[in-house]
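Need residues for this backbone.
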């Protein structure tokens, strides 16, 4: 079995004296799509922020590609192949779609390759191609989510962290976003998906983790978790 691309051991993160993440262990192997599900406030986004270095951690370690990344800046991590699509999308509102995509490739200088990847993104996200010159801030929430994902993929990541990609979107747009998540996974990008829509997340994933009050309470094969009575009762509304 291959070594984990992402390995979290005993991770602890505190906010103003309150421990939000309490000794989390989690791993993602190359080529996997792993879902991290749980209620609001469970500590899922905090975990992602700790991985990317935007939050310091009080204990434990995060290893990426076998090496500790504690204290590494986000720009360093992007250069090493780790990209994140944050909750709330964070597109550059006053830039066009094409300019946003170019920003996603800021660590690269292979002009021909960048153009090829823009064309590839327009193939995955046809709606972005139709609006290539439109300002990102004038697009719908779903279109902005597509752009945020495409922009992250422009750095050619080995590991993509997705934080609540379906939040605030219409049911039709949610289905489209998850189709794209599956497509990107099938193309070989390793994905850690944080998502409140537990059913869709587990349907798309290979493995899943359940987080509750800052701790991992359950992990296993995603399809088996879909049929777990406790998961169904707590997270699938059954």
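Answer:
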């Amino acid at each position: 079995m291959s070594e984990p691309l992402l390995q979290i051991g005993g991770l602890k993160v505190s906010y103003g004296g309150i421990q939000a993440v309490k000794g989390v262990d989690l791993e993602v192997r190359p080529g996997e799509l792993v879902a991290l599900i749980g209620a609001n406030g469970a500590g899922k986004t905090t975990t992602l922020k700790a991985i990317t270095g935007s939050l310091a951690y009080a204990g434990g370690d995060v290893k990426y590609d076998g090496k500790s990344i504690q204290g590494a800046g986000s720009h360093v991590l992007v250069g090493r192949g780790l990209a994140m699509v944050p909750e709330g999308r964070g597109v550059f509102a006053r830039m066009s779609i094409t300019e946003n995509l170019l920003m996603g490739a800021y660590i690269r200088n292979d002009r021909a390759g960048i153009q090829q990847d823009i064309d590839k993104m327009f193939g995955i996200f046809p709606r972005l191609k139709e609006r290539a010159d439109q300002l990102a801030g004038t697009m719908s929430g779903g279109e902005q989510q597509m752009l945020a994902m495409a922009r992250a993929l422009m750095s050619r990541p080995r590991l993509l962290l997705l934080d609540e990609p379906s939040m605030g979107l219409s049911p039709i747009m949610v289905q489209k976003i998850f189709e794209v998540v599956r497509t990107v996974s099938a193309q070989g990008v390793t994905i850690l998906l944080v998502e409140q829509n537990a059913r869709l997340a587990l349907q798309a994933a290979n493995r899943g983790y359940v987080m509750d009050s800052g701790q991992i309470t359950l992990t296993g094969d995603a399809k088996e978790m879909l049929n777990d009575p406790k998961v169904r009762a707590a997270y699938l509304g059954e």
